[in-house]
Amino acid sequence: MTRIIQGINFFRDNIFGAKKSLFEQLREGQRPLALFITCADSRIDPNLLTQTQPGELFVHRNAGNLIPPFGAPPNGEAAGIEYAVQHLAVRDIIICGHSQCGAMHGVMNLSALGSMTSVADWLQFASPCVDRARSRIPGSEGSELFQAVIEQNVLVQMEHLKTYPFVQQAASDGRLRLHAWVYHFERGEIMAYDSSEDRFVSLPEATRHKLLVPLDLPEAIPDQASS
């Protein structure tokens, strides 16, 4: 706790003053650039990773960056997505998994969760990703399978995201774009899903248009580099 309080004091004494005008502007409301859905893991810092300022990202975090499909019992994930899309009118939704994800390790080893029944129940929203990973890379084990599970989980959650009618409508209208990422924190690299090749590639390797996840719509969602 001492470390946290020291950080607060440092922020108050050394950071807040330099950004005072920004925080005063934020008092009038927020207009975030994107909804960033990621894991609650303490090794992940969305604002540090994207070098964004307060007010620029609407962040939702939970164990495993999971999204219950539309129609699941009331949950904070659905509420956050609905608020971001319908009220804040974000232009982009990013689902970002990460390397060494403890939640995905749990999905692969549910029996090891022991008495953590709430964790086991929650991870059911990721249950298809293990079989999909094994099907994609037959015979894989160890770290190779683990990484495939992490990637497939992001795609499973993207499928869940697409079940929300307001997401479908906003994407169909060209007001919303979807992105599937995996962050390798140990090497500071984002791997993004390239739907044209059905694989994750290094973010700088592909054009922004290729990195949009299609919603099975008649027309592709336009990429606007200026937004």
Q: What features would you describe in this structure?
A:
The chain has nine helices and six strands. The chain is globular. By secondary structure, the protein is an alpha/beta fold. The protein has two domains: 1-30, no CATH class; 32-205, Beta-carbonic Anhydrase, Chain A (3-Layer(aba) Sandwich), CATH 3.40.1050. The chain is 39% helix and 16% strand. Helix 7 crosses helix 8 (142-161).
Short descriptors:
227 residues, alpha/beta, Beta-carbonic Anhydrase, Chain A, 2 domains, 6-stranded mixed sheet, disordered C terminus
Blueprint of the fold:
Elements: H1 2-15, H2 20-26, E1 34-39, H3 46-50, E2 57-62, H4 76-87, E3 92-98, H5 102-108, H6 117-122, H7 128-136, H8 142-161, H9 165-172, E4 177-184, E5 189-194, E6 199-202
Parallel strand pairs: 1-2, 1-3, 3-4
Antiparallel strand pairs: 4-5, 5-6
Helix pairs in contact: 7-8
